[in-house]
Amino acid sequence: METKWKEDNVTRAQWSIDAYCPKGSNGRKCEACQNGWLYSTSSCYVINNAKNSNQKTWEEARENCRGKISDLAVIVNEAQKDFTTKNSWTITGISGYWIGLKVEDGRWKWVDGSNLTNDLWIEAPVNGRCATSLAGGGWKSVSCGERNAWICGKKALSV
Hints:
Largest sheet: 8 strands, mixed
Number of strands: 10
Low-confidence stretches: none
CATH architecture: Roll
Strand content: 25-35%
Structural class: alpha+beta
Number of domains: 1
Radius of gyration: 17 Å
């Protein structure tokens, strides 16, 4: 049993090395984010520009992010908010991008369990609502069952 656990850990470690430090002609070069992810203020983001038929509910989008060893994006400062807003493009068929903000017990909460610290960023919380990031600078409270594109986020690699 212990051998299997060690093998799994080695496999995960190798995956991380390969994802963040791909082999090139001159050896390995480590990046803060794996290929296909965007770096901003110590975090990595992937923007999922899903068209109508591939858009997801908030829970489905979160599950997709978890499959990428991440979660829906948590935005803790103005720079991160600006970054996600700039990457919430206006594309035909996309009305917004899920971020990791949901109403729980009458309060806006991030997927990491922290409370929203800037109430000016979005309207008052209503149960059953989740947040989308919109092109042009704002966030919108919508039903968590709506289908949208989404933004995954995770901490950047620091070496």
